[in-house]
Amino acid sequence: MDVYRVTGGARLAGEVPVSGAKNSALKLMAAALLAEGTTRIDNVPDILDVTIMSEVLRQLGCAVGTADGRVVIDVPGSTSTETDYRLVRRMRAAVAVLGPLVARFGRAKVAMPGGDAIGTRGLDMHVNGLIQLGADVRSEHGYLIATADRLRGAQVAFEFPSVGATENVLMASVLADGETIIDNAAREPEIVDLIRMLQAMGAHIDGAGTSTLRIRGVDRLRPVSHRTVPDRIVAGTWAIGAVMTCGDVRVRGARADHLERVLEKLGDMGATITEHDDGFAVSIDRRPSARDIVTLPYPGFPTDLQPMAIALGSIAEGHSMLTENVFEGRFMFVNELIRLGASIQVDGHHCSIDGIERLSGAPVEATDIRAGAGLVLAGLVAEGVTDVGHVMHIDRGYPGFEQHLRALGATIERVSVPDIDLPE
Ligand code: UD1
Fold first, then answer.
1. Is 295 near ligand 1, meaning CB less than 6 Å away?
2. For 29-62, how does the pLDDT look when each residue is reduced to its tens digit (9 = 90+)?
3. Per residue in 235-247, pLDDT tens?
4. Could you tell me which residues come within 8 angstroms of residue 78 by beta carbon, excluding any fewer than 6 positions away?
5. Which domains does the chain have, with CATH numbers?
6. How many CA atoms within 13 Å lie on the side-chain side of 281?
7. Ligand 1 lined by 114 (C-beta under 6 Å)
8. pTM (2 d.p.)
9. Which helix (H) or strand (E) holds 332?
């Protein structure tokens, strides 16, 4: 079993590059299915989830090549419409092929996804949206099966601005007959990125970045080259790491305007934020002050930075409340943080945090990608050694994680530790 072994005490300082967003790249890869021919996507992070999505596309019949941050996808005139249960179970984002497949081929059979254990994460909004576009959707033996002769435009109103449902309905509607209006659409920068690529492919979409999207369906789309938007969650992780360690970090290639609420909050806690043409810098020379945080869909404070924010609150000066409004199961990792000595009480979707000066190193386990990153940041400010287990979660979202941390001055290594052998 691999663990990240972190020795606390270092201050993060220096420059760190940020590559393209995982949550965008995976959907851009799915969108390639909408057009026959060769799609090129640049600035794709070198992470396990991209490998899984490449395999999903290969099993559908595409040729997929990856090298130096570029993914090249050759989509044939007709593909299989069935995804492999073992792959989709490993990564929820694979469900993004549902909309493109049913739009282009009139059929999709997609295994019910797995992925992070951060709540129940239903698919009802994806399914209802497709039904409103005229698809017949049923669930059978662990698969969702969607069929339609041709999708037709419709009014789709989401009760919550779900990122995945917005993307699936959007990718289905671009090839539907007539006009679709998506109300209460998610507005995340990754969705705007997907819209930009679809527009370049020939789709007619108005309202990018707002909660009402208006789509006029077309008969066919063409393959394009597209560059993935920078990863705001990875960038935000480095920013929070800088504040936790009283550091001075320049995050290169990031977009400060995609992290407005986060950087504002860090500024409030005592950090100095400096924006640059190609990113931003975060520095602080004293223990950060505790501040309340509420997670919300974009442009609110991102739920994906919630574990790092709780880790930050646990060493900040004073008391703070963190309220999670997006995923109900996202406090699972808090028990791990408590193993490091954090003083936290969970009550429903609120987390009450009393900041202490130093955590105390211990073995802990990552429960999902972001919890893993949060625990490593906590290890940086813990006395002694913290082993963060289940690092494959971190591999799913952070390219070159320990190399970047080491370059910033952290003491971290990836080591194999034997599992305990129980007596026969
Ligand atoms: C995406 C991101 C994830 C991020 C999340 C919210 C990817 C691969 N993942 O996940 O990192 O944390 O957005 O910013 O892009 N829900 C339903 N029914 C549905 C769909 C969603 O009840 O049909 C609920 C979910 O359980 C959750 C909430 O809506 O409580 C938000 O989910 P959603 O925005 O869809 O997140 P994902 O697309 O899964």
1. no
2. 999 999 999 999 999 999 999 999 999 999 999 9
3. 999 999 999 999 9
4. 61, 105
5. 2-18+230-416 (3.65.10.10), 22-227 (3.65.10.10)
6. 13
7. no
8. 0.96
9. none
